[in-house]
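WARN no homologs supplied; continuing
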Amino acid sequence: MKYRIVLGDKEYCVDVSDNGVCCEAEVEKENIEMSDMVKEVSMEDILPDFHFIDDNNTETIYSPMQGKILNIIVKNGQIVKKGEKIASLESMKMEISISSNVDGFIRDINIHEGDFVKNNQELFVVKRET
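OK structure emitted
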């Protein structure tokens, strides 16, 4: 499960998976493994100024099909318009354009050039223009 959290004044994207024996968290590309947890604690106990970011004003852009990311045209924080090409994907020897669904700015880029992606994989998060 993926979470976007703010701790202090810094924003983190945290991916947490739990198989019942061990819990793994990825924070900024760094894996943290926790096993044999002795006691269950709440997030508030560990991180008193922790809060989730309100994602109601964002739009996630997903891969239209599986393939290889050829290029990423945008950078984090870049303003984009609805319909603007932000990346391209190669699938079945064709180049497919990936465009923004909304006006706003790029908040998260979850891929790199050369990555192989699955159908419906989360690629970008765009914060809507308000």
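Residues 56-128 form a domain with the OB fold (Dihydrolipoamide Acetyltransferase, E2P) fold (CATH 2.40.50.100).
OK
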